[in-house]
């Protein structure tokens, strides 16, 4: 009797209905709301599409309690990221108040030449991300400062964000400290450092090509550097803040904690706390101005406390400078948290109802050659990033689904682990409602629809992985006799 009550597996039409609904609604959201689509319209689109999926699931015999449990479990996956997001909001607020970010902007305006700024930004973020293993931390620190420098030099924030994300994800991808770099070989069954070495075959040409493109953009962009404007901006920064190399200590502490493998949330939270202390020690004049007509103790408590939960607002009369120096706080991340929870709820429902698995089964049926198998894996990783809005799920789910097929065809687990990172990790910031894209947009203040076209590394890497698969370049196979015999039978 119990077998008769089991839910039916979804048909391809069942699986397609909520996805098509989401695509249509997201398109309408962008059409009607433009850059503001991530501030409510996308969330509603995700929730309505989830509701459509639930209706299909109930039709197939699923009950609400099991679906609700899947939604709760899906949201629980985001709680670690939510804590990090809130801590990052506080960090940006206190680092603005302490002069840490303004100091990076100040020195960057003096040192970085506009002609090679984009390439330099990419390299800087790559080095930092490789050192600490976190694209998120890199974007929230070095990335925020580089966006400020770009605005000061009158350069494109969208191209700058593309350079920051390209460099940050390159470093994250090849760093042994990165969570995704450890996750992919664990799922595929390969060894960590062999996985990193094998990734260089696709990663190195991708980042070199991206750097060439950033150099070309920088050299060909019509740039009129107004030294008087830069000098004025630097002067105004110095007037608002006590600019000193000591202001960079919170950054050095955070990088040290990351290198020491301190988990992201406590590391970022400690960085935010140190920023508050540094503001108290080095920015008393600014705190007194922001505190208004209050006594010194009250001003210190209220201004620093506010920086943690609501950021800072600097009013200088210069709108460009105000935009550089204002922002941060936990409240600045609440919309991001809202979008993440909606996106993961939608993805959890699709996975629970078997709709994601249905897509993979259809794709795998047409993957006859090694090239088409790798292309299918890349497509599945990207599709999972689109539907579940989470890069970890885009690694874990395709990895579990394709692992047996890679083994059956005699391919080394390194091929699967590399492909998972080439597509699952790299493409996550390109999907506007993905947690990574929402995060990058939240800290860099650039819409994903604007920066995504300039994330050259993130586009080139998965394309190169597919090309390697079809031409058979650097595709490692297992050498044991049993696998060879299995592979021969499978291809006969």
From TrEMBL:
GO terms for molecular function: antiporter activity. It is a multi-pass membrane protein. It comes from Colwellia psychrerythraea (strain 34H / ATCC BAA-681). Coiled coil: none annotated. GO terms for cellular component: plasma membrane. It is found in: Cell membrane. The keyword Protein biosynthesis does not apply. Keywords: Antiport, Cell membrane, Membrane, Transmembrane, Transmembrane helix, Transport. The lineage of its organism: Bacteria, Pseudomonadati, Pseudomonadota, Gammaproteobacteria, Alteromonadales. Residues 167-473 form the Na+/H+ antiporter NhaC-like C-terminal domain. This is Na+/H+ antiporter NhaC. Belongs to the NhaC Na(+)/H(+) (TC 2.A.35) antiporter family. PANTHER family: MALATE-2H(+)/NA(+)-LACTATE ANTIPORTER, MALATE-2H(+)_NA(+)-LACTATE ANTIPORTER. The chain crosses the membrane at residues 12-33, 39-58, 70-96, 116-137, 144-170, 198-220, 241-259, 265-282, 333-350, 451-471. It comes from the Bacteria.
